[in-house]
Design brief:
This protein has 3 helices and 7 strands. It is an alpha+beta fold.
């Protein structure tokens, strides 16, 4: 009967462990930037969805009431760029304030995700939603900035919007009755992926 020799190697060598750890580190180095890019793309998509929802909500508002919400907008001039957060009570129709803000029938034209709500103006100190959602009084984009908007208040079917051409610094007139947009992560108003106009 033969006795089998037992192999004295019962684990990995130091070199093998170092090679595996190096390969894992290289793969992680390649994957981590991809995750950041995916998160940024998701934020852009979310902002694009919200600006389109705002446009639909305001179209429904104008269909219901036959005018733009000038009281909620605090009687702006034609082509004046405004922060969309001032429409929060009017859009949700949830509080008595919506009656005072151009929505006397308290019709909910839009709902918001809790994470997009803020109590008070968004800034570096106000980055979380309120504990009680009923305390919210505005909404923000994924980068904690107000959405911007402009309405055709003189009813000539055109509004002045930032140019989407990065080489053109001046604003341009678009044939539309309203426009909403987000300035994005870097505050660039010419980010065409988060605007309601083409």
């Amino acid at each position: 009967m033969r006795v089998m020799k037992r192999d004295k190697r019962s684990g990995f060598t130091l070199v093998e462990l170092l090679v595996v750890m190096t390969i894992v580190a290289i793969l992680m180095g390649l994957a981590i930037p991809g995750v950041g890019i995916a998160f940024e793309a998701a934020k852009k998509a979310q902002a694009g969805v919200v600006v389109n929802q705002l446009k639909v909500a305001m179209t429904n508002y104008k269909t219901e009431y036959g005018r733009w919400p000038v009281y909620a907008l605090q009687n702006p001039e034609p082509d004046e760029i405004l922060e969309a957060g001032m429409l929060y009570y009017m859009l949700t129709g949830t509080e008595e304030k919506s009656k005072q803000m151009d929505n006397p029938r308290r019709i909910p034209f839009m709902e918001f995700n809790l994470k997009d709500l803020r109590q008070g103006p968004p800034d570096a100190n106000n980055v979380r939603p309120p504990v009680n959602p009923e305390d919210a009084d505005t909404f923000v984009d994924p980068w904690n900035r107000e959405y911007l908007m402009v309405f055709d208040l003189d009813y000539d079917n055109r509004v002045l919007v930032p140019s989407l051409n990065p080489n053109l610094e001046e604003d341009v007139y678009m044939n539309t009755s309203m426009a909403f947009w987000s300035t994005g992560a870097d505050g660039d108003v010419r980010a065409k992926y988060i605007a309601t106009w083409k």
